[in-house]
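Hi V.,

You were right to ask for the full record rather than a summary. Here it is.
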Amino acid sequence: MLNSKSKYNPNRLTSAAPLALFRILFGVMMLISIVRFWYYGWIEKFYIEPKFFFSYYGFEWVKPLGEWTYLLFIICGLSSIFVAVGYRYRLSIITFFLSFTYIELMDKTTYLNHYYFISILSFLMIFLPAAAYYSLDARKDKKTAYEFIPVWTIDCLKLLLGIVYFYAGLAKLQPDWLVRAMPLKIWLPSKYDTPLLGNLMHENWVHYAFSWGGAAYDLLIPFLLLNKRTRSFAFVMVVIFHVLTRVLFPIGMFPYIMIVSALIFFEPRVHHKLLGWLSNVLKINMSQFDNKRELIFNSTLTTKLKNGLLVAFFAIQILIPFRFMAYPGNLFWTEQGFRFSWRVMLMEKAGYANFKVVDGISGKRFYVNNSDFLTAQQQKMMSTQPDMIVEYAHFLGDKFAKDGHQNVEIYVESYAALNGRSSRPYIDPKVDLMKEKDGFENKEWILPY
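Predicted structure:
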């Protein structure tokens, strides 16, 4: 039943140790991330100090909670601890998913691919029996403790990680990355002070080696991790790749999260050894969890609904990155369909946006000082993202209308530069943005690339 060489069967069982170790490492990584965010003062900087917050389309109701935002982070941190130790796991992982996702949705300015990854990963973990083994729940209630679980519960995590890597690789198969080595050709020379590698960072061949090597790594690493003969080599490459990206680029905890997540590809005996080492450190009797019990999901309506949700979940993850094909123009210029598609570190984009408030009847006008309403980070992000530009324009229009201005129209004079090219006009300056709106429709007021 546990023979890994047997033909794949979703009803086949395997050791619960890999999923238990994944749960522990996930919870610990999330706790470190929350503490780190608090320690650096980013809660205050990103969610309390700003006067205005950029919303995601359809989630305009999600707003920072003022000083209560700290409580939200406390709830998120506590739930990550409970997930790690497996205490009331289902409630804890649901709480973590909701609190973390709420944090992610509070301001579009802070969007990062790995925040989205954590949200969908925690959602997936709601449906997995991650506390069936080596958890407080399993220790407290023997009826919920299982040594063996369905193999698909672990394969789901492998599939999600494979999607993230493979789609990141597909996104790199474009001229700027492969032919021009952009934006690495812009970023790497600034890393001249990197120990051992600093002197190479200005070399042209290094820029191309990193570009082509990064694309090959993302495309191949899921398959190398799946193959037993190449798995150890692949994991070494995972460690080298993510440590190197952490050294060169300030991307927070993401490299470490991907390193520990890659352990899920190893055989159960590896996870048993790691849990055994952890048991020795924490003085835990690991044998209490080895009860030989097998978790079997019966064909009930609830099980069918869960399976249906999982199928829908993965269908969405597979299809969403291709939604950019529904829009005309250069994806990196229009950014329509850019988010949630694993396009990681593929562009260097700088912009300028000067907003003009016009009385549509008298023609009187004045310009807005964006610093009066936005932080420096918000200004930087807004100036190159059309959906944020139109949202900010509506904010300005509504504000000045409330202040007594009549017949308010909002126009923007904007320029953007993409991957080392010269700056070009970005948004049509003749379009009254108060008459436009964010949504899934094509934004025709974005000037052609």
